[in-house]
User: Fold this.
Amino acid sequence: MSEKLKPAKLLIVATKSGRVTKKYPYEEPLVSPDFRGLIEIDENKCIGCGACVNACPPNALQLISDKDTTVIRYFIGRCIFCWRCVDVCPVGAIKGTRKFELATDDASDLYVHVVHKKAKCEACEGNGGTQKMLYYVVEKSPITEEYLNECPDCRKKSFIESVAKRRAGGVSE
Amino acid sequence: MLRNTSIIDKYVKLAESANASIMVDGDTIHIVAKPEYIPGLAGKLFNEFKCVHRTCVATDERPLSGFFSLTHLFTDDSNGFYVALKTYLEGDKPRAPSIIEQVPAADWCEMEARDLVGIEFEGRSAYRLVLPPGWPSDVYPLRKDFQYDKRPNMLPVSEKVTITEESSTVPVGPYHPALHEPEYFELYVEGEKVVDVKYRGFHVHRGIEKLGESRMTYQQVNFLAERICGICGFEHSTCYALAVEKAAKLDVPERAQFIRSIILEVERLHSHLLWLGVAFHLVGYDAGFMHMWRIREKVMHLSEYLTGSRKTYGINLVGGVRKDINEEKKPKILETLDTLEKEFKELVDIATSVPQVKRRLTGTGVLPREDAVKLGVEGPVARASGIDRDARRDLPYAAYKHVSFKVPVYTEGDNMARTLVRVDEVFESISMIKQLLDQMPKGPIRLEEFDIPPGKIGVQVVEAPRGGDIHFVVTGEGKPYRWRVRAPTYNNIPALRVMLRDQPLADAPLTIASIDPCFSCTDRVVVIKEDGSVYKLSLVEGVKL
Assistant:
């Protein structure tokens, strides 16, 4: 008899466990403190170096460049919330949050843009990295200040020229 | 060690008999032979050495050496060795001898190599497996001259349900009624009995291997590998990381390996509880399903607590892990495991006493041992048919050599046996996590600086909840040169035909679900003929029913 009645024991289990469905969103919290959610980029701290863009596995962070500006674009729709960008950011501009309620009726809400001005090159009127990146480099290594008014291409060119001059033994100045 | 040398001597003799070169690198034995010797060597490895054929890998090595290469991957489970049998193929239209006569399990992977790299196999019938019917016939996506973001001109081709005179067709899919994944079965029924089955899969081939070889870097591929499967993602990312680490000979901190093992077992717990819930749902015992998923939720919370995410944990990197399990977390893990063990025991005890569950599971979907060996099935499906094989014990990886555990083996081969294997594994996993937490060494959790030299090969098997995953990596400059993935369902699907034959139709959904199929894993890499009709699994036709 007891063997036949055994399935009914589930009633005891059900009574013990009671209701497990949470009254979301009226009950807090739904996620644990360690939960990885949305990332937030601090515009003031960001230097536009692109380390996060290189690390991002799904290309949610992209670097878009035109003549005068560099834009870091974060598209939440692609983000997998791995926080690799948080790990690699050299200035700690990216912060992970526990936010997960990201549904929206406006697609533009899914984009975050951080706009940076590009540094002007004195030699060719073109440009290289962002201004903020140059300040960051100078701060870390003051000795570099005198080279930084040129873009990487011009810097290479002038370096090669000076080496060539030295080789030839001639001094033009 | 003496034992090892005598085993290696055996392999050296085998290689010498075929004029092949042999190199032993850690636990991997590389044999390079001329194409004509491959079937003979593969046959000896499979039949005499009792190696398991895991998969084969075709690589376009033209930019490196001017040749195509084909590598058959075996594992010698009783001695703990990986065997890579490689051959170089010449020309733009390379031809290789087929090994399916000797090793029937190599059928699908040879056809995959034909579709994606363009290697023709001699001595067997060829059909299109992976690529869609409209794909142009001379475009091979895994060749190095094919751009990953290129889309060839394709005409959409629709497929129709096959209608035969002898039996009625019951289409199941393209979405599985319980598992919500795209795959398609055609069941041919006479009255209530299933007489034959056709499988058409590979609807969700996502080109993951190509993406990993072209756009991504070593560390990014971990996150891509995790997305191969929604249930056993961490197994894939661990497998990838271990393969790269093996290729680059990185000495990963012990603590990282322990954390990996703990998370792997947490994932197995959640996967088995999910499957048990689905199985109860399919036999109509929904109360059991609800309660199984209620206790599974505890495991989901546990994984979020340990990794930061309920699924796709994202904590694996080449060289270690990203998140530590510190002392403060231990009491909560142990508490969760204790309540889980108690509640699970109580619930399984009640559920297996329910007459409908017992009767529907016992004696249905039988897979006899002989067929299981021939088809090379994996994981709980193999262990329920009396094959004692588990990569965690036979080819230890991560921190599994530090724990003791039983490998549950049942000989009945029916749905009940597959259920019981999983139930037993849940208890083993709980005990393993406890042992691992207890022995966890102190130290760093990842290597800070390391280089990965190009041109090295790493092969790794990881026992996922459904069976062995295998990843094969050839290292390149900043990203893998070749990355090959094989998921366990790839080997288990052909067994379905044996299981479903002469069974009532009502049991079919349950039997299909009993292999815990994961179609996205399998399809990463379609069974159709050139004319667009569905191909009948020749592999299973080989088995006399």
